[in-house]
Amino acid sequence: MTEPLQGDARRRMAAAAVVLALIVLAIVLAVLLREPAGSPPQPAAPSTSPGASTSPGPAASGASPSTAQPGTVQHSPSQPVEPSTETPEAGQDPVQPPANVPPVPVPPSAPDAGPGPAPDPGPPAAPFPSALLGQDLTAIPNAGRVVALTFDAGANAAGLPKILSTLSAKGVTGTFFLTGNWVEANPGGVGQIVSAGHRVANHSMTHPGFTGLDGTQIARQVRGAEQTILAAGGDPRPLFRYPFGERDARTIAAVNSLGYVAVRWTVDTLGWKGTSGGVTAQAVADRTLAALQPGEIVLMHIGSNPDDGSTLDADALPEIIDRISAAGYGFSTLDALLAP
Fold first, then answer.
1. Among the options 198, 203, 207, 301, which is catalytic?
2. Distance between CA atoms of 338 and 259, rounded to whole angstroms?
3. Cα angle vertex 216, ends 215, 221, to 5°?
4. Catalytic residue status for 207
5. What is the Cα–Cα distance from 129 to 116, expressed in whole angstroms?
6. pLDDT of residue 87
7. Phi-psi region of 160 (alpha: psi -120 to 50; beta: other; left: phi over 0)
């Protein structure tokens, strides 16, 4: 009985081993055949759109290169500063405190015309003959036997009543270069000059030297005076005279771009030096006549000398007019420059 029992035990153990092997095989197959549904998602690769760049452009950096023109003074773009007038020109004391310079006006945006090409407005009308571009004129070209009497106003108005009275009595018209400061300090002056039939012109807002200004500051000075004179009842366009006569090719081009022709003078009477400077009314007249020529531009001043209070240009004006007339010359305003 012992041998049959041992044979049955061996068969049961073999069968159990087979069953166990089958179970292990089934488990292995189940693991291998199961899909990886629970695996974590792979990180997406960064997408690059066409034309995209990771390097910062000029706008992102916030820095743009500055190109300075020769002779310009660089200032912070947020706060342009005009240099102060240190030396009075022709007896013109700087106004203290200096008048505010109005900002450059921004033209209104054109209305949206909708789809389609915009109509061609054509070239703008020239404010003065193109032959005058790039010049600071010292005489009226091709004027014949005429003289232009011009008067700068940047200090006070002490000589204005006598000048206007003389011009009226002699039947002569003149050209008055006004600073915006002078107009603000003498609110009735523009009206008196214009109502008497005379021409007004632009002499800057606060009378600084222009070669030390950048383009924005030049525009502020010219447009500031223009707005102030227009508001007072006159129109200075397109005649401009540099404070102190200080200019160069850059500043002439800048003034031209603002629609103005630059006008200097043939002779400065030096009446602004006053009696304290050794000048007399007779010397003023003699100096003017010594420079007499066709198209002569005479520089005189409205204000009094700050030291002695004299107004030698106003005093000498009657003799100047009489002697020029006796020499066979007539008179003209600087509008003669604008004739085509």
1. 301
2. 12
3. 100
4. no
5. 35
6. 37
7. alpha
Burial category of 259 from C-beta neighbours within 10 Å (exposed 0-12, middle 13-18, buried 19 and up): middle
Given the residues 152, 214, 313, 315, select the one marked as catalytic: 152
Single-letter code of the amino acid located at 104: V
Q: Please choose, from the candidates 260, 227, 266, the residue with its C-alpha nearest in 3D space to the C-alpha of residue 241.
A: 260
Residue with tokens 């197959």: 29
What is the model's pLDDT at position 7? 60
Structure tokens belonging to residue 330? 């007539």
Chain mean position to CA 6: 119
pTM: 0.68
Calculate ∠ Cα 161-319-310, nearest 5°. Answer: 50
Give the model confidence (pLDDT) of 60-108 as tens digits. 333 333 333 333 333 333 333 333 333 344 444 433 334 455 555 544 4
Give the closest residue to 99 by CA, choosing from 206, 224, 207, 203. Answer: 206
Catalytic status, residue 286: no
Query: Distance of alpha carbon 338 from its chain centroid, rounded?
Result: 24
